[in-house]
Specification:
69% helix; mainly alpha; Serine Threonine Protein Phosphatase 5, Tetratricopeptide repeat
Length: 234
């Protein structure tokens, strides 16, 4: 696609790709459909590959406030051209978990600001900003193969501090990040299990759920065997 493509042309294409049935299903996944067109994410990913990286277009698309445009924007953003100020602006605009997760795992974790933003956003009171902080950790745990164990252990006090946040999108992100850290290697698995046990002792509804669900996966035979195989191959 031409580098001179406009946001108007992209929105026109998104309307062509829209699926009314998918739009109606968004509500079942906790996504308000007020500004949604109904384009499935696989189609958005394919469209993003067609567009390529285009920072100016990404910003224009985000500013339309259209749901799918805000999923597409991080996909075509250039991490090298993305400023800390832009990340802070976008994170406060987020109003759904799918935009949040795509933003964090498709852009934020690829910038040099990822760790700093995770620490900063987790301490923010707004639900999706706090979620974003934990999702960045989950994304780094999956994508950053060179990250040290210590870089993740630094976040552990924040897990303990915010595990009792009862808000659905926060507790699920805390759980997700904890599980992804614990699946990186044997050492972090043991550390994450100990952390989950500490969280469970907080004895709040949210903390109990986060810990129980994380321990179920992290202590499962499949994860333990995979981590053992990984360790033996190194």
């Amino acid at each position: 696609m031409s580098a001179t493509v406009t946001a108007r042309e992209v929105i026109a294409r998104l309307n062509e790709l829209a699926d009314k049935g998918h739009r109606s299903r968004l509500v079942r996944f906790g996504i308000a459909d007020k500004r949604a067109l109904g384009v499935p994410v696989p189609k958005l990913r394919a469209f993003a590959r067609e567009i390529g990286k285009n920072q100016k277009l990404a910003i224009s698309l985000w500013n339309t406030r259209i749901h799918e445009a805000r999923i597409l924007a991080p996909m075509i953003s250039n991490p090298a051209l993305t400023t800390e100020q832009l990340l802070d602006k976008w994170v406060t605009d987020i109003d759904s978990w799918d935009i949040c997760d795509g933003f964090c795992g498709g852009l934020v974790d690829k910038t040099p600001f990822a760790i700093a933003k995770a620490f900063e956003w987790i301490k923010h009171e707004e639900e999706f900003v706090r979620r974003a902080g934990f999702v960045v950790i989950a994304a780094l745990a999956v994508h950053d193969k060179k990250a040290t164990d210590r870089s993740f252990e630094r976040f552990f006090p924040l897990f303990l501090e915010y595990a009792s946040d009862e808000r659905n999108f926060v507790r699920k992100a805390v759980n997700w990040a904890l599980r992804e850290i614990g699946k990186r290697n044997v050492r972090l698995n043991k550390k994450a299990v100990l952390l989950a046990e500490k969280i469970r002792k907080q004895d709040t509804k949210s903390a109990r759920w986060i810990a129980t669900d994380a321990l179920r996966e992290l202590q499962s035979d499949s994860i333990q065997q995979r981590l053992a195989r990984k360790a033996s191959s190194q």
